[in-house]
Amino acid sequence: MKKSIFLGLSAALVLVLSSFLLPADGYKVGDKVMVFNLKNIDNKMVSLGHDASAKGYIVVFTCNTCPVAKAYEQRIVELNKTYAPKGYPVIAINANDAGISPGDSFEQMQQRAISKSYGFPYLLDATQEVAKTYGARSTPTIYVVKREGNDYVLAYHGAIDNNSNDAYAASTHYVAKAVDALLQNKPVEVTSTKAIGCGIKWKM
């Protein structure tokens, strides 16, 4: 009986703590976003805005271990190949707590980036402050931001496309359409979608 009560109280405590650990709703389209400065896999600091020639960025909250993030990995690589030369490079960020998910440690990030030939920064959000401020809850989640003077304004957030399993089966490419619209100085038609993936592993 006592054991059952203890387990019940423990479960309730975990739920209460989880509610405090979850990020706020985060940014809405049109909001100015945080200009972060995080450690890259080469141990150098990289900030949003590090490339003075960029018109904006495709910010991706991702990780090493989530099956959905892995399914999207090559698509993220291709987004950078397509849009970095046009002024919208990718910045990838891993916010998972390595204490909970050892496969997402900084050393594992370095190995992953090398093995997959990332052509973009892969940053560690060690405090998870950036993920919480942006409102990221799962991997992968995309934030397309455009430069407006010295600020960066959110233009799109959510999923990369409408098929998390098969890139070739995707019929709507949300990020590509958003960036294409921005490059043509046109309004982004779909500004928000639901990101499908694994929950970010928050520190306890």
Detailed description of the structure:
This protein is an alpha+beta fold and 204 residues long. The chain has a single domain, classed as Glutaredoxin (3-Layer(aba) Sandwich), CATH 3.40.30. The chain is built from five helices and nine strands. The strands form two sheets. A seven-stranded mixed β-sheet has the order 2-1-5-4-3-7-8, with helices on one face. Strand 3, helix 2 (67-83) and strand 4 form a beta-alpha-beta unit. The longest helix has 20 residues, at 2-21.
Task: Report the mean per-residue pLDDT as an integer.
Answer: 90
Could you tell me the radius of gyration in angstroms?
18 Å
* Largest sheet report: 7 strands, mixed
* SS class: alpha+beta
Described by its quaternary structure, the protein is single chain
Low-confidence stretches: 1-23
Overall number of structural domains:
1
What's the shape? globular
In percent, how much strand structure appears in the residues?
Answer: 15-25%
Write the layout of secondary structure elements.
Elements: H1 2-21, E1 37-40, E2 45-47, E3 56-61, H2 67-83, E4 90-94, H3 106-115, E5 122-124, H4 129-134, E6 138-139, E7 141-148, E8 151-158, H5 174-183, E9 198-199
Parallel strand pairs: 3-4, 4-5
Antiparallel strand pairs: 1-2, 1-5, 3-7, 6-9, 7-8
